[in-house]
Specification:
Distance between the termini: 81 Å
Radius of gyration: 23 Å
Strand order of the largest sheet: 2-1-5-6-7-8
Largest sheet: 6 strands, antiparallel
Number of strands: 12
Structural class: alpha+beta
């Protein structure tokens, strides 16, 4: 047998093995995709409930999420729209699409996101009387190393914070990563967003002094993570400001959303 024949057979076997492995991997990916999508949706619902302080680990997420209504808001008008299916709408994808978003000017781009999508998903929790009890809004913006994605929950007045949580980020563990610290997240509920018509809530350096006249709008800073803290302040203020959800919250309070 010639050496050329041996090399050819080796190449044929290697190529065949690659084809078989590719088919197996592709088939596995296709088969697992539905389960992955279900888990992704379940995780999103869990994070929405957690941000609002509503997550009960003793009950199923689906059971708890049944009290949450998902709606789509047109950020250009600050009003609900039925033109977009909330079950199919991908807000992240829309933010990267020139047809589904707008370019933010340097003055507008407080959260450092470059583009803002035209539509956003919002989550409403109603009480037994059918009145809105909590409003949960998606937020994102740049920190030190990464874009932070999370939710902020407001009470029915659209001004009092009910909770906040980030479900995805790449900030430094032990520093900017302290946005995941339950103790830090626990200082958000009860804080006020607006003051004299402007977004005033934000992080400060160090701990908040309860006796300070501005304490109702101040959040404890993140030790050693000045840029992440600044990023959190910027993204929260952007999404609750005039280029984010403020027009919607105004319309909702006026009964015109």
């Amino acid at each position: 047998m010639s050496s050329n024949d041996s090399i050819r057979k080796t190449l044929i076997v290697a190529f065949s093995l690659c084809i078989v492995c590719s088919v197996i991997v592709s088939a596995a990916a296709v088969m697992l995709k539905p389960a992955q999508e279900i888990n992704k949706t379940l995780d999103r619902k869990r994070n929405i409930l957690a941000a609002a302080g509503m997550l009960d680990d003793s009950r199923s997420v689906e059971e708890q999420f049944a009290q949450v209504t998902t709606r789509v808001v047109d950020l250009r008008t600050g009003r609900f729209t039925d033109d977009i299916d909330p079950q199919k709408y991908d807000q992240r994808k829309a933010a990267k699409d020139s047809a589904g978003s707008k370019v933010l000017s340097s003055d507008q781009d407080q959260a450092k996101i470059s583009r803002r999508e035209h539509y956003a998903l919002v989550y409403l929790v109603e009480n037994e009387q059918g009145e809105i009890d909590k409003i949960i809004l998606p937020i994102h913006g740049y920190g030190l190393w990464s874009t932070l994605y999370g939710f902020i929950a407001l009470e029915s007045d659209g001004n009092t914070v009910a909770g906040l949580g980030f479900y995805e980020h790449g900030e430094t563990p032990g520093l900017g990563g302290e946005v995941d610290n339950p103790r830090w997240k626990s200082v958000w509920p009860g804080k006020q967003v607006y003051r004299d018509g402007n977004v005033a809530v934000g992080l400060i350096k160090g701990a908040v002094d309860p006796a300070n006249a501005n304490a109702a709008w101040q959040i404890d800073g993140l030790a050693g993570a000045t840029l992440t803290a600044r990023g959190v302040t910027n993204l929260v203020q952007f999404w609750l400001g005039e280029n984010g959800f403020e027009p919607f919250l105004d319309n909702l309070n006026a009964g015109e959303a």
